[in-house]
Every structure is written in C-alpha cells, then in structure tokens.
Specification:
There is one protein chain. The chain is 40% helix and 22% strand. The chain is an alpha/beta fold and 201 residues long. Strands 3-2-1-4-5-6-7 form a seven-stranded mixed β-sheet, covered by helices on one side. The protein starts with a strand and ends with a helix. Bound molecules: glycinamide ribonucleotide. The site of glycinamide ribonucleotide has 17 residues, from α1, β5 and α6.
Length: 201
C-alpha cells in the first residue's frame, strides 16, 4: 500500500479528486495517511475530516526559520512512513535541501502545460491570467516530480484544455481543474501505486 500525504493550502478540490478516486476504486493500492495544511481553517482540512483522514496544520510562520519549519515537516512525514508526498495546491516553497531528502517522492499538480506559464511567481489564478494575456488557444495541467527547480522536475502526465472565447481567469481555472487536474492527479498517483505494488509482488 502506497502511503500518501497530501499537502494543501486552500479549497482542496484536488484533494477531493484523490479521495473520490480512492473511494470509488478508480485507483488502487494507495491510502491517504495524512493531510497537511500550510495554514489553519482551509476548507481542505474539512474535506479530510469528512472522510476520516487525519489533518494537521504546519504553518511556516510559527517557526523561527524556514529550516526549523522544514525539520518539523520532514519529521512528521517520516514518523508517518509516507511513501509519496502530493502537493495539491500547496503554496509554500520547499527548499532544495528538503526536496533532496525526498527524491522522487514528491509530486505536484500545476495548472498549465509545463514549460509554459510555470516557475517562480506562477501559481493559482496568476497562471491563467498569463495564459489569457498571451492569447494561447490551448492550455492544460501537468503532474510532475518535484526537484530543486520550481516546476522543473520530470513530467509524469499532462492534459490539454481548450481556451474559449470570453474566458476569464476564473472560468479558465475552473475548466482546467475539471477537465485536467482532477483527472491526471489521481491517475498519476494510481500509476505510482501500481508500480510499487508490482515491485513488491
Ligand atoms: C490548483 O489549480 C493547482 O493546480 C494550483 O492551485 C490550485 C489549488 O486548488 N497549484 C499551483 O498553482 C501550484 N503552482 P485546490 O486547493 O482546489 O486543489
């Protein structure tokens, strides 16, 4: 069984997509062990609670340094014997040191077709604002491994989504989530879980 920690900062619709895929047996051999939020009172924690998944808040500003913050985060992940860390709308940047400790064990969902509209400063609605500003006709989402370069790790899955006339950043964000993110994030996890299952059998 692949033990997953999902790291969140907001509404948690991607977390919900993973929960649903597991509950509906769309993906197998995995379990969400823990949801870690970067701040209290995010709706993602409510979603975890509704499905009897342990939730925890680890808030960067409660620590005297980023190093101290990451030490507590790493201890929590190791104590729970987490196999895969899923960044699902997680808005705290993790250092090179942290990422190296969990090589090929962290994945992220990004709301564009990497390498377009990604890297430092491109997150949430800003990504869709930039896509509309550029006038692209196709955008989408990417699931990738996390390395020391923001949005620079190996790509696992991508899915394209059409931009439509009259799109606002909000409308485009919703379509990219519904058509791409909520599909490819659970699927990527399922593929990693299947691989672990096959390797162990
Ligand atoms: C998602 O669109 C995700 O791709 C994006 O934040 C949103 C979180 O929504 N992440 C990034 O921009 C990371 N660079 P959610 O909390 O409803 O899953």
């Amino acid at each position: 069984m692949l033990k997953i920690a999902v790291l969140v900062s907001g509404g948690g619709t991607n977390l919900q997509a993973i929960i649903d895929a597991i509950e509906n047996k769309v993906i197998e051999h995995c379990k969400i062990e823990l949801v870690i939020a970067s701040k209290p009172e995010v709706y993602a924690l409510e979603r975890a609670k509704n499905h009897n998944i342990a939730g925890k808040v680890i808030c960067k500003k409660d620590f005297s340094s980023h190093q101290e913050y990451e030490k507590v985060m790493a201890t929590c992940l190791n104590d729970n014997q987490i196999d895969l860390i899923v960044l699902a709308g997680f808005m705290t940047i993790l250092s090179e040191d942290f990422v190296k400790q969990f090589d090929k064990k962290i994945i992220n969902v990004h709301p564009s077709l990497i390498p377009a509209f990604c890297g430092d400063g491109f997150y949430g609605l800003k990504v869709h604002e930039a896509a509309l500003q550029k006038g692209v006709k196709v955008t989408g989402a990417t699931v990738h491994y996390v390395n020391e370069i923001t949005d620079g790790g190996e790509i696992i899955l991508q899915k394209a989504v059409c931009v439509e006339a009259g799109d606002t950043p909000q409308k485009l964000q919703k379509r990219v989530m519904e058509e791409a993110e909520w599909d490819i994030l659970p699927r990527a996890i399922g593929e990693i879980a299947n691989q672990k299952f096959l390797n162990n059998n």
